[in-house]
Amino acid sequence: MDAARPVSAKPSWSRVLATTIGLRVQRLHRAGSWPWRAPGWPGRTWFRGRSKRLLTTWRLAVVLVVLAVIAGAAVRFAETAPRAKLPPSAADPGPSGANGESAQAQAALWIADQVSSNAMVACYPTMCTALLQQGVAADRLVPLRTGSVGPIDANVIVISPSVSSQVVDHYAPALTASFGSGAARIEVRSAEPGGPAAYESALQADLAARKSAGSQLLRNWHIQFTAREAAQLRAGEVDSRILATLAALASQYSFRITAFGDASPGVQAVFREATISPGGRDGAAELAGAEALVNEQDPPFLPAHLAIDHPAAHQATLSIEFAVPSPLGLLSPTLEADRGRSAAGTTVIAGPLPLGWARIS
Fold it and tell me: What angle do CA 99, 100, 101 make, to 5 degrees?
Protein backbone atom coordinates (compact mmCIF):
# COMPACT_ATOMS: atom_id res chain seq x y z
CA MET A 1 0.00 0.00 0.00
CA ASP A 2 1.31 3.39 -0.97
CA ALA A 3 2.11 5.83 1.80
CA ALA A 4 -0.52 8.50 2.31
CA ARG A 5 0.35 11.66 0.49
CA PRO A 6 0.46 14.84 2.52
CA VAL A 7 -2.59 17.00 2.01
CA SER A 8 -1.58 20.39 0.67
CA ALA A 9 -3.21 23.58 1.78
CA LYS A 10 -5.93 25.12 -0.39
CA PRO A 11 -4.52 27.53 -3.01
CA SER A 12 -5.64 31.14 -2.90
CA TRP A 13 -8.21 32.56 -5.36
CA SER A 14 -5.54 34.64 -7.07
CA ARG A 15 -3.46 31.50 -7.76
CA VAL A 16 -6.51 29.62 -9.11
CA LEU A 17 -7.36 32.44 -11.54
CA ALA A 18 -3.76 32.76 -12.70
CA THR A 19 -3.62 29.01 -13.40
CA THR A 20 -6.89 29.21 -15.37
CA ILE A 21 -5.51 31.96 -17.58
CA GLY A 22 -2.26 30.03 -18.14
CA LEU A 23 -4.11 26.88 -19.24
CA ARG A 24 -6.27 28.90 -21.66
CA VAL A 25 -3.23 30.43 -23.26
CA GLN A 26 -1.55 27.01 -23.64
CA ARG A 27 -4.65 25.61 -25.40
CA LEU A 28 -4.68 28.51 -27.86
CA HIS A 29 -1.00 28.01 -28.54
CA ARG A 30 -1.36 24.27 -29.23
CA ALA A 31 -4.42 24.81 -31.43
CA GLY A 32 -2.55 27.25 -33.68
CA SER A 33 -5.02 30.03 -32.97
CA TRP A 34 -2.41 32.78 -32.67
CA PRO A 35 -2.22 35.14 -35.67
CA TRP A 36 1.46 34.52 -36.38
CA ARG A 37 0.94 30.74 -36.47
CA ALA A 38 -2.20 30.75 -38.72
CA PRO A 39 -1.70 29.94 -42.41
CA GLY A 40 -2.23 32.69 -44.88
CA TRP A 41 -1.54 35.50 -42.42
CA PRO A 42 -2.04 38.41 -42.88
CA GLY A 43 -4.69 37.43 -45.43
CA ARG A 44 -8.20 38.75 -45.13
CA THR A 45 -9.72 35.22 -45.13
CA TRP A 46 -8.01 34.28 -41.83
CA PHE A 47 -8.80 37.59 -40.19
CA ARG A 48 -12.49 37.38 -41.03
CA GLY A 49 -12.72 33.76 -39.82
CA ARG A 50 -10.76 34.23 -36.62
CA SER A 51 -11.42 37.84 -35.60
CA LYS A 52 -14.57 37.09 -33.64
CA ARG A 53 -12.98 34.19 -31.73
CA LEU A 54 -9.81 36.20 -31.06
CA LEU A 55 -11.78 39.14 -29.72
CA THR A 56 -13.79 36.90 -27.44
CA THR A 57 -10.62 35.22 -26.11
CA TRP A 58 -8.90 38.50 -25.27
CA ARG A 59 -12.02 39.84 -23.60
CA LEU A 60 -12.14 36.73 -21.43
CA ALA A 61 -8.44 37.10 -20.61
CA VAL A 62 -8.89 40.73 -19.57
CA VAL A 63 -11.87 39.84 -17.36
CA LEU A 64 -9.94 37.01 -15.70
CA VAL A 65 -6.94 39.26 -15.02
CA VAL A 66 -9.18 41.91 -13.44
CA LEU A 67 -10.87 39.29 -11.29
CA ALA A 68 -7.48 37.95 -10.20
CA VAL A 69 -6.36 41.43 -9.15
CA ILE A 70 -9.60 42.01 -7.22
CA ALA A 71 -9.36 38.61 -5.50
CA GLY A 72 -5.75 39.22 -4.50
CA ALA A 73 -6.65 42.60 -3.03
CA ALA A 74 -9.54 41.04 -1.10
CA VAL A 75 -7.26 38.36 0.35
CA ARG A 76 -4.68 40.96 1.46
CA PHE A 77 -7.44 43.08 3.02
CA ALA A 78 -8.82 40.10 4.95
CA GLU A 79 -5.34 39.30 6.27
CA THR A 80 -4.53 42.84 7.39
CA ALA A 81 -7.94 44.07 8.58
CA PRO A 82 -8.37 44.30 12.37
CA ARG A 83 -10.28 41.46 13.93
CA ALA A 84 -13.74 42.12 15.30
CA LYS A 85 -13.94 42.49 19.07
CA LEU A 86 -15.08 39.49 21.06
CA PRO A 87 -18.37 39.71 22.89
CA PRO A 88 -18.03 40.74 26.53
CA SER A 89 -18.57 37.19 27.76
CA ALA A 90 -15.53 35.99 25.81
CA ALA A 91 -13.29 39.07 25.99
CA ASP A 92 -13.65 39.64 29.74
CA PRO A 93 -12.45 36.58 31.67
CA GLY A 94 -13.75 38.00 34.96
CA PRO A 95 -12.23 37.16 38.32
CA SER A 96 -10.79 33.85 37.08
CA GLY A 97 -8.96 35.45 34.13
CA ALA A 98 -5.70 37.35 33.91
CA ASN A 99 -6.96 40.47 35.65
CA GLY A 100 -8.58 38.52 38.45
CA GLU A 101 -5.46 36.40 39.00
CA SER A 102 -3.29 39.51 39.13
CA ALA A 103 -5.52 41.20 41.72
CA GLN A 104 -5.68 37.99 43.73
CA ALA A 105 -1.90 37.60 43.69
CA GLN A 106 -1.41 41.20 44.80
CA ALA A 107 -3.97 40.82 47.57
CA ALA A 108 -2.40 37.58 48.82
CA LEU A 109 1.07 39.14 48.89
CA TRP A 110 -0.21 42.23 50.73
CA ILE A 111 -2.13 40.19 53.32
CA ALA A 112 0.88 37.98 54.03
CA ASP A 113 3.03 41.07 54.61
CA GLN A 114 0.64 43.54 56.23
CA VAL A 115 -1.96 41.59 58.22
CA SER A 116 -1.06 40.69 61.79
CA SER A 117 0.47 37.22 62.14
CA ASN A 118 -2.06 36.27 64.84
CA ALA A 119 -5.14 37.52 62.95
CA MET A 120 -7.66 35.03 61.55
CA VAL A 121 -8.40 35.56 57.85
CA ALA A 122 -11.67 34.52 56.19
CA CYS A 123 -11.19 33.85 52.48
CA TYR A 124 -12.86 32.16 49.52
CA PRO A 125 -11.20 28.89 48.38
CA THR A 126 -8.89 30.17 45.63
CA MET A 127 -7.74 33.07 47.82
CA CYS A 128 -7.06 30.67 50.68
CA THR A 129 -4.86 28.68 48.29
CA ALA A 130 -3.02 31.85 47.24
CA LEU A 131 -2.46 32.79 50.90
CA LEU A 132 -1.07 29.34 51.66
CA GLN A 133 1.38 29.78 48.80
CA GLN A 134 2.49 33.09 50.37
CA GLY A 135 3.27 31.35 53.65
CA VAL A 136 0.14 32.15 55.66
CA ALA A 137 -0.47 29.32 58.13
CA ALA A 138 -3.43 27.07 57.34
CA ASP A 139 -4.78 27.29 60.91
CA ARG A 140 -5.26 31.06 60.42
CA LEU A 141 -7.60 30.64 57.42
CA VAL A 142 -11.38 30.41 57.58
CA PRO A 143 -12.84 29.27 54.21
CA LEU A 144 -15.81 31.25 52.88
CA ARG A 145 -18.43 29.67 50.64
CA THR A 146 -20.56 31.28 47.95
CA GLY A 147 -23.66 32.75 49.54
CA SER A 148 -22.23 32.74 53.08
CA VAL A 149 -24.34 34.95 55.33
CA GLY A 150 -23.73 33.67 58.87
CA PRO A 151 -21.33 35.05 61.52
CA ILE A 152 -17.66 34.66 60.62
CA ASP A 153 -15.03 33.94 63.27
CA ALA A 154 -12.24 36.03 61.74
CA ASN A 155 -10.46 39.36 62.21
CA VAL A 156 -10.03 40.04 58.49
CA ILE A 157 -12.34 39.04 55.64
CA VAL A 158 -11.31 38.89 51.98
CA ILE A 159 -14.28 39.70 49.74
CA SER A 160 -14.72 38.78 46.08
CA PRO A 161 -17.73 39.45 43.79
CA SER A 162 -18.93 35.87 44.40
CA VAL A 163 -19.25 36.40 48.16
CA SER A 164 -22.65 37.55 49.39
CA SER A 165 -22.93 41.27 50.06
CA GLN A 166 -24.60 40.41 53.36
CA VAL A 167 -21.16 39.48 54.69
CA VAL A 168 -20.02 43.05 54.07
CA ASP A 169 -23.23 44.62 55.35
CA HIS A 170 -23.35 42.70 58.64
CA TYR A 171 -19.85 41.56 59.54
CA ALA A 172 -17.16 43.49 57.62
CA PRO A 173 -17.97 47.21 57.52
CA ALA A 174 -14.36 48.48 57.58
CA LEU A 175 -12.60 48.56 54.19
CA THR A 176 -8.87 48.09 54.77
CA ALA A 177 -7.50 47.63 51.23
CA SER A 178 -8.71 46.88 47.70
CA PHE A 179 -7.14 45.42 44.57
CA GLY A 180 -8.34 45.38 40.96
CA SER A 181 -11.64 46.75 39.68
CA GLY A 182 -15.00 45.64 38.35
CA ALA A 183 -15.58 41.89 38.36
CA ALA A 184 -11.94 41.33 39.37
CA ARG A 185 -12.07 43.60 42.45
CA ILE A 186 -10.90 42.06 45.71
CA GLU A 187 -11.45 43.80 49.05
CA VAL A 188 -9.77 43.21 52.39
CA ARG A 189 -12.06 44.19 55.27
CA SER A 190 -11.82 44.22 59.04
CA ALA A 191 -14.52 42.18 60.77
CA GLU A 192 -16.74 43.64 63.49
CA PRO A 193 -18.83 41.04 65.35
CA GLY A 194 -21.14 43.74 66.70
CA GLY A 195 -22.12 44.86 63.21
CA PRO A 196 -21.93 48.24 61.47
CA ALA A 197 -23.65 50.20 64.25
CA ALA A 198 -21.21 49.01 66.93
CA TYR A 199 -18.28 49.57 64.58
CA GLU A 200 -19.36 53.13 63.75
CA SER A 201 -19.73 53.98 67.43
CA ALA A 202 -16.31 52.55 68.29
CA LEU A 203 -14.76 54.28 65.29
CA GLN A 204 -16.05 57.70 66.30
CA ALA A 205 -14.81 57.24 69.87
CA ASP A 206 -11.41 56.13 68.61
CA LEU A 207 -11.22 59.10 66.23
CA ALA A 208 -11.89 61.51 69.10
CA ALA A 209 -9.19 59.81 71.19
CA ARG A 210 -6.66 60.01 68.32
CA LYS A 211 -7.34 63.71 67.81
CA SER A 212 -6.88 64.42 71.53
CA ALA A 213 -3.69 62.37 71.74
CA GLY A 214 -2.29 63.97 68.58
CA SER A 215 -2.89 67.45 69.95
CA GLN A 216 -1.05 66.48 73.14
CA LEU A 217 1.93 65.16 71.18
CA LEU A 218 2.22 68.48 69.37
CA ARG A 219 2.94 70.11 72.73
CA ASN A 220 5.83 67.78 73.50
CA TRP A 221 9.14 69.64 73.18
CA HIS A 222 11.03 66.34 72.55
CA ILE A 223 9.32 65.80 69.18
CA GLN A 224 9.58 68.01 66.10
CA PHE A 225 6.89 67.95 63.43
CA THR A 226 6.48 69.50 60.00
CA ALA A 227 3.26 71.34 59.17
CA ARG A 228 1.97 68.34 57.22
CA GLU A 229 2.48 65.83 60.05
CA ALA A 230 1.02 68.30 62.57
CA ALA A 231 -2.15 68.61 60.48
CA GLN A 232 -2.44 64.83 60.24
CA LEU A 233 -2.17 64.53 64.03
CA ARG A 234 -4.87 67.15 64.64
CA ALA A 235 -7.17 65.39 62.18
CA GLY A 236 -6.83 62.06 63.98
CA GLU A 237 -5.33 60.34 60.93
CA VAL A 238 -2.54 58.54 62.81
CA ASP A 239 -2.96 55.03 64.24
CA SER A 240 -3.32 54.91 68.04
CA ARG A 241 -0.39 52.46 68.32
CA ILE A 242 1.89 54.97 66.58
CA LEU A 243 0.72 57.73 68.93
CA ALA A 244 1.40 55.65 72.03
CA THR A 245 4.81 54.58 70.70
CA LEU A 246 5.88 58.16 69.97
CA ALA A 247 4.77 59.27 73.43
CA ALA A 248 6.84 56.51 75.07
CA LEU A 249 9.92 57.29 72.96
CA ALA A 250 9.62 61.00 73.77
CA SER A 251 10.02 60.17 77.47
CA GLN A 252 13.64 59.13 76.79
CA TYR A 253 14.73 60.58 73.44
CA SER A 254 14.41 63.68 71.30
CA PHE A 255 13.62 63.07 67.64
CA ARG A 256 12.04 64.41 64.47
CA ILE A 257 9.06 62.93 62.61
CA THR A 258 10.18 62.49 59.00
CA ALA A 259 6.85 61.14 57.74
CA PHE A 260 3.68 59.25 58.54
CA GLY A 261 2.63 56.62 56.06
CA ASP A 262 0.67 53.46 55.40
CA ALA A 263 0.61 50.66 52.88
CA SER A 264 -3.11 50.18 52.22
CA PRO A 265 -3.88 50.39 48.47
CA GLY A 266 -7.24 51.59 47.27
CA VAL A 267 -8.41 53.19 50.52
CA GLN A 268 -7.61 56.18 52.72
CA ALA A 269 -6.68 54.39 55.95
CA VAL A 270 -5.10 55.68 59.15
CA PHE A 271 -1.33 56.02 59.06
CA ARG A 272 0.20 52.88 60.54
CA GLU A 273 3.83 53.82 59.87
CA ALA A 274 6.12 56.50 61.26
CA THR A 275 9.67 57.34 60.24
CA ILE A 276 11.78 59.22 62.78
CA SER A 277 15.26 60.71 62.71
CA PRO A 278 17.35 61.44 65.84
CA GLY A 279 17.38 64.93 67.30
CA GLY A 280 20.43 64.60 69.58
CA ARG A 281 24.14 64.60 68.93
CA ASP A 282 24.67 60.85 69.11
CA GLY A 283 22.08 59.91 66.51
CA ALA A 284 23.18 56.30 65.94
CA ALA A 285 23.02 55.45 69.65
CA GLU A 286 19.63 57.14 70.04
CA LEU A 287 18.13 55.21 67.14
CA ALA A 288 19.54 51.93 68.46
CA GLY A 289 18.08 52.63 71.91
CA ALA A 290 14.70 53.59 70.44
CA GLU A 291 14.65 50.43 68.32
CA ALA A 292 15.42 48.27 71.36
CA LEU A 293 12.67 49.94 73.44
CA VAL A 294 10.01 49.43 70.78
CA ASN A 295 11.15 45.88 70.07
CA GLU A 296 10.60 44.87 73.71
CA GLN A 297 6.86 45.62 73.64
CA ASP A 298 4.04 43.09 73.63
CA PRO A 299 1.11 43.07 71.18
CA PRO A 300 -0.69 45.19 70.23
CA PHE A 301 2.26 47.58 70.66
CA LEU A 302 4.85 45.34 68.97
CA PRO A 303 5.32 46.56 65.37
CA ALA A 304 5.11 44.24 62.40
CA HIS A 305 8.14 45.93 60.81
CA LEU A 306 10.92 47.74 62.67
CA ALA A 307 14.22 48.71 61.05
CA ILE A 308 16.94 51.34 60.98
CA ASP A 309 17.55 52.60 57.46
CA HIS A 310 20.89 54.00 56.35
CA PRO A 311 20.40 56.11 53.20
CA ALA A 312 23.61 56.88 51.33
CA ALA A 313 23.25 60.67 51.32
CA HIS A 314 20.95 61.23 54.31
CA GLN A 315 20.82 60.71 58.04
CA ALA A 316 19.79 57.29 59.33
CA THR A 317 16.12 56.87 60.28
CA LEU A 318 14.01 54.43 62.27
CA SER A 319 10.93 53.02 60.52
CA ILE A 320 8.07 51.74 62.69
CA GLU A 321 5.09 50.03 61.04
CA PHE A 322 2.12 48.28 62.66
CA ALA A 323 0.00 45.56 61.10
CA VAL A 324 -3.64 45.38 60.01
CA PRO A 325 -6.21 45.56 61.51
CA SER A 326 -5.94 48.75 63.54
CA PRO A 327 -7.55 48.07 66.94
CA LEU A 328 -10.08 50.56 68.23
CA GLY A 329 -10.31 51.90 71.77
CA LEU A 330 -6.66 51.55 72.82
CA LEU A 331 -6.36 55.19 73.93
CA SER A 332 -9.76 55.68 75.53
CA PRO A 333 -8.89 54.28 79.01
CA THR A 334 -5.72 56.37 79.11
CA LEU A 335 -7.50 59.58 78.15
CA GLU A 336 -10.17 58.96 80.79
CA ALA A 337 -7.46 58.56 83.44
CA ASP A 338 -5.69 61.69 82.20
CA ARG A 339 -8.71 63.89 82.95
CA GLY A 340 -7.94 63.60 86.66
CA ARG A 341 -4.41 64.86 86.08
CA SER A 342 -5.28 67.81 83.85
CA ALA A 343 -5.46 70.22 86.83
CA ALA A 344 -1.76 69.60 87.55
CA GLY A 345 -0.79 70.87 84.08
CA THR A 346 0.67 67.56 83.00
CA THR A 347 -0.93 64.94 80.76
CA VAL A 348 0.02 61.28 80.52
CA ILE A 349 -0.88 59.72 77.18
CA ALA A 350 0.40 56.19 77.65
CA GLY A 351 0.51 55.69 81.40
CA PRO A 352 -1.63 52.54 81.69
CA LEU A 353 -0.17 51.06 78.49
CA PRO A 354 2.79 48.61 78.41
CA LEU A 355 4.96 51.31 76.82
CA GLY A 356 5.37 53.14 80.15
CA TRP A 357 5.03 56.79 81.12
CA ALA A 358 5.30 59.56 78.55
CA ARG A 359 4.90 63.09 79.80
CA ILE A 360 3.45 65.65 77.41
CA SER A 361 3.02 69.17 78.63
Answer: 95
DSSP SS3 for 238: strand
Q: Contact 104/183 with Cβ under 8 angstroms?
A: no
* DSSP 8-state symbol, 230: H
> Regarding predicted confidence, which is higher, 229 or 28?
229
- Say if pTM beats, i.e. exceeds, 0.70: no
Q: Which pLDDT score, from 0 to 100, does residue 92 have?
A: 32
Q: Cα separation of 70 and 17, whole Å? A: 11
Residue 53's pLDDT band, with cuts at 50, 70 and 90, is low
How many other C-beta atoms can be found within 10 angstroms of the C-beta atom of residue 175?
17
**Rounded average pLDDT over 306-314:** 83
Q: From the CB of residue 220, how many other CB atoms can be counted at a distance below 10 Å?
A: 20
**305-309, strands of its sheet edge to edge:** 223-224, 255-261, 273-278, 317-321, 305-309
Helix (H) or strand (E) segment spanning residue 202: helix 195-217
DSSP state of 138: G
- Residue 325's pLDDT band, with cuts at 50, 70 and 90, is very high
User: DSSP letter at 180?
Assistant: S
Work out the number of other CB atoms within 10 angstroms of the CB of residue 46. 14
